[in-house]
Amino acid sequence: MVQEYQSPVRVYKHPFELIMAAYVRRFPKCPLIPMFVDSEIISESQSDDGCVLVTERRCTIDIEAPRLLKRIAGVDYLYFIQKNSLNRRDRTLHIEVHNETFSNRVIVRERCSYTVHPENESWTCFEQSASLDIKSFFGFESTAEKIAMKQYASSIKKGKEIIEYYLRELEKEGVTYIPRWTSTVDSGTVTWRHQLLPPSAARAIPVNSAKDGLHCKDSSCSAELVTGSPDDKLDADYIRRYLGDLTPLQESCLIRLRQWLQETHKGKIPKDQHVLRFLRARDFNLDKAREFLCQSLTWRRQHQVDFLLDTWKRPQLLQDYYSGGWHHHDKDGRPLYILRLGQMDTKGLVRALGEEALLRQVLSINEEGLRRCEENTRVFGQPISSWTCLVDLDGLNMRHLWRPGIKALLRIIEIVEANYPETLGRLLILRAPRVFPVLWTLVSPLIDENTRKKFLVYAGNDYQGPGGLVDYIDREIIPDFLQGDCMCDIPEGGMVPKFLYRTAEELESEENRLLTDSIYKSASIYKGAPYELLIEITEASSVITWDFDVSKGDVVFNIYHSRRAPQPPRKETHGIASLGAVNPQLIDKSWVLGQDYSTVEKALMCREGESVQGSHITRWPGFYILQWRFLSSAACAASSMPRVDDVLASLQVSSHKCKIMYYTEVLASCDFRGSMTSLESCHSGFSHGRPDAAMTKAHLYPLVPSKRILFFKYELCH
């Protein structure tokens, strides 16, 4: 497996010329890097005007590895070739490194660059990327890979320290400024000179709101999505200030996942804090974190969770009887949420409001928690990405173990765990009664192991002594109902009057309505059995719009037109009951492309995790077929595409199945508010507009946009 590394942008608050003077002092050997034994120049060339200098060195490296492994490999040192290309005019240094030793067994590539800061010409930026591919190594491939990654991570940490060390050495020698290089040509003779520039005053790098999302004051700004572009890069100081101390390899995982999102979701991408939470939840396993994050972002986008705080108004019943609220912060600066669960009539709330209202309430609490973390990061000047929850169980009894209430609680926990990982910094459970172990047995299996480690449980009044509440919360903000001095305006809860209860029929009716209200639909695409959707157009110049996410596998999206109405698919019996339903095919096997039907849009290849929005102006009335088919190396033209009969046996193979979530709508041309000339599909995953109509409910996660929100999407995309 190829191991890759990508560094953040490291900024030196010194001019490029001074950094180069410090850099060359690393050669031929550097005592600050014990593993860097020696180096020798094997070639050097310079342009006629002295602008470009290319230097190749052979570097000797002493890897810290078990002596047995060195003896098996038959080497004491490793040799690498380093090529430095310095351009004095452009003020850039590009470094390329590859291994000379074991080059037929191991492939090592490294690229580094020193460039001028794009917003301050008196500063210098440094970036680094590398890859390691061990094809074979005497049966010790895994061991060699671990040793190499450990050594590389260690050398990365020292890189900036070394430059800063030699900068201090130059300062001791009185060298604090080196003029910029320029050249002039006079009468055919090249002369060199340095242009003396007035030193510019150092200024802070402006922190782009698209990068950290910490300066967005507009209420319409998404809680989790910000505009990003491939040129929007992270610098090391920003990571340390807003995201915390990460190891070099953890930084690399964050940057690579962020780059993947920028490439596949051109538009709005998650904030860095949000991406980092999912990486931490999967122990910085890039593939697992990417899958986890994409599932959550699809959920957020499908149900418009980013607009929840601005569009959902809490029912008065929740305001009166939901005994929870935000209350200052803990000693670490985390926002503090207090829930008086023992005083809450969970059965009454479920009977009066239904499960969906409680789910919205919990989601709004989590969304508010994310905002408060950002605010506290600014206030306290340190990264704060989680909050503390204090749960008071005084009054908890068997009534709280009402089965429908427990079912609702388990469902809510499952959703929160799937979409808000690593947001709970600490959970303080106070005054736990004897019935608490029963409740804990029911809910603990759904809680992530890392989250369970953050739970602290106090029985009776144990929280008042040493090691109790005062260790985590300042005494002056402990609520009065916990024998503190701070008045707390959190509702006391109480019993919900029974006359407010809704009948079982009303709750069931709402549940059934929520099941069918989502405007998005799901579909599976099999190898050889595409998913096809028929749209009949009666008026030319109508606009077909689409919006879909590829949640699994890669697909090809096509749009066809036919003047003939496709015949209803025939039900065919294949005698294999386990295969389940196969997608009905609208394009008859006897149809010929170009005669019976035609392609009206260029085929669009869509990769897993991508989100696609687009539209098509119809030129003729008739029947339009939207088709999603499995993308593989053997894919061919639609006219020769293998049909269902040929691939039934392959349907049981999970790798031959793709999944999409889609929404389509047909608009009259007079109603379409997007551009009528630029109607390409737009890969803008997670990009969305603010709803201009009331949101409708959806089953389980009741946050689906009104249909007309797609208008705003097309305006953004086009």
TrEMBL record:
Locate the PRELI/MSF1 domain: which residues?
Answer: 2-175
CRAL-TRIO domain location, by residue? 314-490
Q: Matching SUPFAM superfamilies, A to Z?
A: CRAL/TRIO domain, CRAL/TRIO N-terminal domain, Supernatant protein factor (SPF), C-terminal domain
Tell me the PROSITE patterns matching this sequence: CRAL_TRIO, GOLD, PRELI_MSF1
GO MF entries? RIG-I binding
| GO CC annotations on file | cytosol
What is this protein identified as? SEC14 like lipid binding 1
Q: Which organism is it from?
A: Astatotilapia calliptera (Eastern happy)
